[in-house]
Each structure stands twice: as C-alpha cells, then as structure tokens.
TrEMBL record:
The lineage of its organism: Eukaryota, Metazoa, Ecdysozoa, Arthropoda, Hexapoda. Residues 62-75 have a biased composition (Polar residues). GO terms for cellular component: peroxisomal membrane. Its main location: membrane. Residues 139-376 form the ABC transmembrane type-1 domain. Belongs to the ABC transporter superfamily. ABCD family. Peroxisomal fatty acyl CoA transporter (TC 3.A.1.203) subfamily. GO terms for molecular function: ABC-type transporter activity; ATP binding; ATP hydrolysis activity; long-chain fatty acid transmembrane transporter activity. Residues 54-78 are annotated as: Disordered. It is found in: Peroxisome membrane. Residues 507-729 form the ABC transporter domain. It is a multi-pass membrane protein. This is Blast:ATP-binding cassette sub-family D member 2. The chain crosses the membrane at residues 23-46, 128-154, 174-195. PROSITE patterns: ABC_TM1F, ABC_TRANSPORTER_1, ABC_TRANSPORTER_2.
Length: 732
C-alpha cells in the first residue's frame, strides 16, 4: 500500500505540473473507482440476460443438426473438455442427490439449529462438567477484557488531558497506571486464546469419543463403507471435519460474545461521556445504527454467493485429490500400460478447473472487499467522527460571563480527554461490529461442517440398526417380493437366531436370499444345514454368490428374508473364523499377527505361551520368522512377508483360535500344494469344520459335501462321491 500511495503521489505531482490540481486528480481517481465498481456489479446481470438467447439457439442447433463438426467447434475443443468434466461432476452430484433425497442441504435453517443442538449436547453432556467450567472461565475473561479496554481508553484520554494541561505529576501517575494495567490486559488476552484452544480440544475429544463408539458399534466401520452409500470418506469426517467443527464452534463463541459485550458496555460508556458533556445521548447511537444497518443491507445485496463458490472449489479440489489417489492406488497397472500421458492430461485438466474457480473467487473478492473496506474504514470512520463531535459541538459550555482563562483551559483539556477516550472506544466498537459482520461467514461455514458431522452420526446410528441407503441396480418392482422397501430403503426382515444347545452346533439357513449391498439378488432362496464334521466345498462361476454366502454367515451382510441359525459364540472359542485371499496384517509385533484379533492380555488369560506360538508357526512352515525375529519385534509385516507367507500367517491365526467352523475363501492360492495339504490335514485333526471356496482340484479330497452354484440363481447341495473330480466349468 505504501508503494502504491507513493506511485499515486508521483502521478499527482506530474499532473499538477501539467496544470491539473491535486483536488481534480483526486476527484477523477475516486470517480474512476466508483465507475469501475458499478460496471463490475452490473456486468454479471447483463451477461445472464444475454446468455439466455445463445443457449436457446445452441440447444436448437443441437437438436436439429446431425452434421459434422465445424471449424469453430474444433477450435473450442478445450472448452468442450472442461464442459464435459463439469457435466460429469454435475451428473454425479445429481445421482448423489437422488440417493439422499431425505437429506437437507446445509444452510441457516431449522435443520441446522437442530443438528447443532444435538452436537452441543454431545460436547456439553452435563450442566456441571469440564466443558462448562472452561466456558465459564472463558466468558469471565471476555467480559474482563471489555472492561479493561474501556479502562485503558479512559487512561489514554486522561494522559492527553494532562498533556494539554502540562501537569507532569498527574501525567506520570496516569502513565504508571497505564503500564500497570498492561500486565493483566496481556494476561487476559493470552488466556482468551488459551481457553479457546482448550475448548476446541475438549469439544473435539467429546465428539471423537462419541463418534468412535458409533463407528465400531455393530461393525459400523464395515457397514458404512460397504453397505451404505451416503458417506464416501468416513476417515476425513472422523478426523478433519470434527476438528474443524470443534475449532469453529470455540472460535465462534469468542467472535460472538466478546463483540456483544464490547458494544453493550462501550455504548454505555459513550452515553455516560456524552452526558458529562451535557449533550443529547440518543443522537449519536441513532446515527450509528442507521449507517451500520444501511451499509450492511447494501453489502448483503451486492455480496457474491461465496458459499456456492467455495463449495464448488472444494468439489474441484476433492476431484483433484481423487485423481492423485487413484494414480497412487493403480500405479503398477498404469506403469504397465504406459498410461502416464492420459493420467497427466486428466491431472492438468482437473488442476486447471480448480485454478479457474480460484481465480473466479479472487476476482469476486477483489471488488467486494473494496466495497466492504470503503464502508467499514471510511463511511464508518466518518460517522464516528460525527458521533464524537456532536457532544462537543452541541454540548452546553455554561455562562459566558463566568468564563476565564483558567476555565477555558480546563474546558479544552476536558474536551480533549473526551475526544481521545471516545475515539478509542469507537475504534473498539467498530472492530466489534466488523467482527460481528464477518461472523456471518463463519456461521455459514459452521453450517456446512455441522451438516457433515451431524449427518455422519445420523448415518452411524441408522447403519447400526440395520438401515442402509445405497443405489440399487434394479427397480423395486423387479424384486419379486424378496426385498421390501420402506421410504426408499430396503428392510432386512430376516432373523439371526443364536442356539445355546451344546448338542446342536450346526449352521442352518432357511429360505435365506443372497443379496448384495446394492440389492442385486444373486440367489433368491437358499436352504441348507451344515453340521460339525460336514466339510463343505463351495463351487461356481464368478459372481454366483460364493463369497457373498460367507459374508451372510459372518453377519456382515443383512438378511432380507428367512432365518439363519448359528451357535452362539463362546468367549474363548469363536464359532466362525473367516480367512480371505488377501489376509490383513495389523500394526504390531509378530506375536500380535498370530493372535489377532486377541490382545496380549487375552493370550495370557488363555494360558498360551510363546512355545505354543512357535509350534503353530511350525505347523504352517513359518518357524524361520520366529528364529529371525523375536515375538516382540514390531515391523511392517504387510511389506516384509510375501503373499504366501501372509496366507500362512492367516492360517496360523486359525490354529491359534481353533473355531468350530473355518470360512476359507481362496486362502491358500499362493501356498505350495504340499504345505496346503498339511494345513488342511491339521485343521481337520483339530476338529475344525471347513467351508472352502477354491479352484484347486487337489483340495476336493478334504471335503465331504459340495454346494454348487450355477450363476443363474439356482444351487445344489449334495454329498460328494469318493472319487469325484472337479468339473471343467468350475475350473475357469
């Protein structure tokens, strides 16, 4: 700004040398700025009206012509790419809105107040709690800071008063008071920031703990990401959104309460000062309220829709991050194909769209901030000068016949004191009003964060109760009565019945349909009984429902009809243990990998020693790992172990837990045949009933029954022949 002002002064001097006065140059400069602002405000409306007819003409040409592309269309190919990308995002947003019909858009409405009230009850659960104590101390500090500001303004007025009077003694005393009050004032300022940070952390802690309880309730971490489609990035909401929401609430409390205290107390102080000057105490406040209301109304009318602009910027930024994440996830495949040019082009297009949106926001802010600063800095300052001068210009000065030189000097010092004190108070009041007006933007942003955090918790509550909302692949009338919908959401009418009879440890399915999360019916009805010792081999083409059956047996997918009877899990011996093709390696030591999901305390309670763990590793041919590393060494096991070693580690977990049933989903595809045969023999000797999905013919001999899916909804459950060989259609 200093460089700009010097540049303007030089131009003014040159104009003055050429015969143009500085006053005329200033008028020209201000007029140019006002004209530019007027053009900037009116151009968008003119563009909107003019853009209607070209759109109609363009749509008419699109509908009525099927010819080749013209040269102009070829020249605008880059713009077409951007429009195509924008249309893709728009279509995706529309599809998402269709899925979430009942979810209200974020904004300052009743739903926002309802959601905020729900979150406040979580953050402040009781009247007497840690958070209310912090709020009380924080409020006390805010009020104290306002009184200190008024007192400091009075001291500065007294300093000027004694300077005018040339009273060195009183000036020194007041200056000492001014330095003395600086210590508690700076401490209170620091305490306000400290307590705001503590409040934010306390609110965040309450929300995080509550969210974690919901997230891990009834396996919600799986249901939210696989069975429900309303939350695409639960990790971001659980971390970033909760953190920003808590910070916004804590900061907004300070931003709203302190300006309100400032305006109330500073207004009373100004009225008291005006009364001392024997002036009207209502004229100044009435003038200030009128000017502030008028300027605020103008700003609200001409303000761009920053909420929509920022929302679009966030969407484009999220799309750019999505492309980066996709490249990282599929880096090997992209490298094999040599698709770096295509990926780089998509990245550039996404980044250019983000840059264009940011430039649009910057240009919108340029003129709006100019108008905002003009009102707040100059119009409000001019109004403040009038308010300060009114008590001096209109106040009573007493009888002129009694006025002497000493009295005149005293009146001058009193007026100077009033002027300095009132000026400082008005600066504080203007700052408070500016913070209140800028708080509107913070409240709008808070509405967005409230919508995301409260919506996340609502989804957690619904999925924990078995209520899911996801795009379906077929219409409701194509379900043939298998799935019932209520308010657009499928209703799980099936039942899971746990049996406590020690003599009945079988798994029974009675008319249970195999249905995917997007309501695709794979098998309309499945009825079978698996008793202990019935080693079942499950075969069929891809997508026929083999792995889906395991998810239903494990309770991961809902049962939309029929009944599932399973033994009740025992504390030290689970009923079922699922092993996928790609096992999960947890964070921790070698011991933690074997006993997962048990902890060291669970292992000690079961009286299992490290020697027994070594024997388990020997069963799966992993004893070399125990010889190389101790059981307490923490490593990144998902990178250290090979694919076959990971699968054998998962089998070691099976031998550690010794469940009644083992759900094996291609879990030995990377294991050699000899080790695989040994593993199956050991599992059967432990009394574990095997339910296996495999394409290896060598494993058929370890099973007694077979469940065949044909991929068209039909199935067949039968006992295997002794010398039966695998059919050709199940090899592919």
């Amino acid at each position: 700004m200093t460089v700009l002002s010097k540049y303007v002064d030089r131009i003014a001097e040159k104009c003055e040398q050429n015969g143009l006065s500085k006053h005329a140059f200033s008028c020209v400069l201000v007029t140019s700025a006002i004209v530019a602002l007027t053009i900037k405000i009116t151009i968008p409306y003119v563009r909107n009206t003019q853009s209607q007819s070209p759109r109609k003409i363009l749509s008419g040409k699109t509908k009525g012509s099927t010819g080749a592309l013209t040269p102009s269309a070829t020249d605008g190919s880059d713009e077409d790419l951007k429009l195509a990308e924008a249309e893709k995002l728009l279509v995706a947003q529309k599809l998402k809105n269709k899925t979430n019909k009942q979810m209200i858009e974020p904004g300052l409405n009743k739903e926002f107040l309802k959601q905020l009230g729900m979150l406040v009850k979580i953050m402040i659960p009781n009247t007497l709690c840690y958070e209310t104590g912090l709020l009380s101390i924080h409020t006390f500090c805010l009020i104290s800071r306002t009184f200190l500001s008024i007192y400091v303004a009075a001291l500065e007025g007294a300093l000027v008063k004694f300077i005018v009077r040339k009273d060195v003694k009183q000036f020194s005393l007041v200056l000492l008071k001014w330095f003395g009050i600086a210590i508690p004032a700076t401490f209170v300022n620091s305490m306000i920031r400290f307590l705001e940070s503590k409040l934010s952390l306390a609110f965040r802690t309450r929300l995080v703990r509550h969210s974690y309880r919901l997230y891990f309730k009834n396996q919600n971490y799986y249901r939210v990401s696989n069975l429900d489609g309303r939350i695409e990035n639960a990790d971001h909401r659980l971390t970033e959104d909760i953190s920003v929401f808590a910070s916004s609430v804590a900061h907004l409390y300070s931003s709203l309460t302190k300006p309100c205290f400032d305006l109330m107390l500073i207004g009373l102080a100004l009225m008291r000062s005006s009364r001392k000057m024997k002036a009207n105490i209502l004229t100044g406040p009435a003038l200030s309220v009128s000017v502030i209301a008028l300027t605020a109304h103008i700003l609200r009318i001409v303000s761009p829709k920053f909420g929509q602009l920022v929302s679009e910027e966030a969407n484009r930024y999220g799309y750019l991050r999505h492309i980066h994440s996709r490249i990282i996830t599929n880096a090997e495949e992209i490298a094999f194909y040599g698709g770096h040019k295509v990926e780089m082009q998509q990245l550039r297009q996404a980044y250019n769209r983000l840059v264009n949106q940011m430039n649009n926001i910057f240009s919108q802010k340029l003129w709006f901030i100019m108008l905002e600063q003009f009102f707040m800095k100059y119009v409000w300052s001019g109004t403040g000068m009038i308010m300060v001068s009114l008590p001096i210009l209109t106040g009573s000065t007493g009888d002129p016949s009694l006025v002497e030189s000493s009295a005149t000097e005293s009146n001058v010092s009193e007026r100077t004191q009033y002027l300095t004190t009132a000026r400082n108070l008005l600066i504080s009041a203007a700052d408070a009003i500016e913070r209140l007006m800028s708080s509107y933007k913070e409240i709008v942003a808070l509405a967005g964060y409230t919508y995301r955090v409260a919506g996340m918790m609502d989804v957690f509550e619904e999925t924990a109760q078995g209520v899911y909302c996801k795009a379906t692949v077929v219409e409701n009338d194509e379900m043939n009565g298998i799935i019932e919908f209520r308010d657009g959401k499928p209703v799980a009418k099936g039942r899971i019945i746990y049996t406590d009879d020690p003599g009945n440890m079988s798994i029974t399915l009675r008319a249970v349909p195999v249905v995917t999360p997007n309501c695709d019916i794979v098998v309309p009805s499945l009825t079978l009984c698996i008793e202990p010792g019935v080693h079942l081999l499950i075969t069929g083409p891809n997508g026929c429902g083999k792995s889906s059956l395991f998810r239903i047996l494990s309770g991961l997918w809902p049962i939309y009809a029929g009944e599932l009877h399973i033994p009740r899990p025992v504390e030290d011996k689970p009923c079922m243990f699922y092993i996928p093709q790609r096992p999960y390696m947890s964070i921790g030591s070698l011991c933690d990998q074997i006993i997962y999901p048990d902890t060291r305390e669970d292992m000690k309670r079961k009286n299992i020693t490290e020697n027994e763990l070594k024997e388990i590793l020997k069963m799966v041919s992993l004893e070399h790992i125990a010889q190389r590393d101790s059981f307490d060494v923490v490593r990144d096991w998902k990178d250290i172990l090979s694919g076959g070693e990971k699968q054998r580690m998962a089998i070691a977990r099976l031998f550690y837990h010794k469940p009644r049933y083992a759900l094996l989903d291609e879990c030995t595809s990377a294991v050699s045949i000899d080790v695989e045969s040994s593993i199956y023999e050991i599992a059967k000797s432990m009394g574990i009933t095997l339910l296996t999905i495999t394409h290896r013919p060598t494993l058929w001999k370890y099973h007694t029954h077979i469940l065949e899916f044909d991929g068209l909804g039909s199935w067949r459950f039968r006992k295997m022949d002794l010398n039966e060989q695998q059919k050709e259609q199940f090899l592919h």
